[in-house]
Structures are given as C-alpha cells and as structure tokens.
Amino acid sequence: MLRHSLGTITVEAQGQGLYEITPKVAAWLSTQEIGDGLLTLFCRHTSASLLIQENAALAARSDLEAYFARIAPENPSAYAHNDEGPDDMPAHLRAALTQTQLAIPVQSGRMMLGTWQGIYLFEHRREPSPRQIIVHLAGE
Q: In total, how many domains does the chain have?
C-alpha cells in the first residue's frame, strides 16, 4: 500500500554559497516508516535553489559559486528589478539556472545517492532569511 509523508526542513544560511543539507534530510528520512519509495525536496524560495553535487572536494563548491557569480553578476545597472538590493535579481537568475526541486530514490530507508554526492541548498542572497525545504516521501 502506497503511503505518503510530508515535512519541512529549515536551513539557516549565513550568506551566499552552498550549504550541505544531506544530514538534515537523512535525519528526517530516518524518522519515517517508509522503506522504499521516492523522496522529493522542494525549495520554497525564488532566490535559493537545490543541487546534488560533489561533497568531497571543497574546490568543486568554490568553483560552482565563482561560476554563477560570473554568469549572473551583481551589477545594478544591468537589471530593472532590484526591489531588495543589488543581489536580488542575480539571485533570481541563479535560481532559474539551477533547480528548486529534487527527486531521490529511497531503498531500505536510505537515499540512493552516489558515493560523492551530497544535497545542497544553494543560497544566492548575501543576507538570506531562513529557508524552508519541503520534503515529501511516497512509497511502501
């Protein structure tokens, strides 16, 4: 019989950058009574996103952050939308180029991530508010 479970994970980012949330997601998953299924994560914000990315080499995260700073720079003269400051529109662009949701298979109560994969909140604002990630597990 297919069952569902729904929850929220809050992330307190300290500024722009990649924040690994794999342990928080795994902790939530460990409290569920569904062994096999599909885990969906959804970021409820337009200036932050979610990524599955390399979690062993810090340089990989630094390179990703630098790349997005180059392709969506903070340049107030380049954008009409700046309601919340010069990092507002670049944050929206960076979020549009990444993803706000992830789907991860679950087997025997564990995420089926690869050896070097981690789940990250990619915070695009310099002074963010707490971010909410909706977690939904469907399975048996």
A: 1
How many angstroms separate the CA atoms of 61 and 63, rounded? 5
Residue 129 belongs to a domain with what CATH number? 2.60.120.460
Q: Please give the Cα distance from 126 to 45 (Å, whole number).
A: 15
Structure tokens at 82: 């700046």
Residue 116 near residue 22, CB atoms below 8 Å: no
121 in Cβ contact with 42 (< 8 Å) = no
Residue 2 to residues 33, 48, 93, Cα–Cα distance (Å): 12, 31, 37
The range of the structural domain enclosing residue 32 comes to: 3-139
Q: Is-contact 76 86, C-beta < 8 A?
A: yes
**Report field, pTM of the whole predicted structure over 0.85:** yes
> 140 near 34, Cβ under 8 Å?
yes
User: In the predicted model, what is the mean pLDDT of the chain?
Assistant: 96
Predicted local distance difference test score (pLDDT) of residue 82: 86
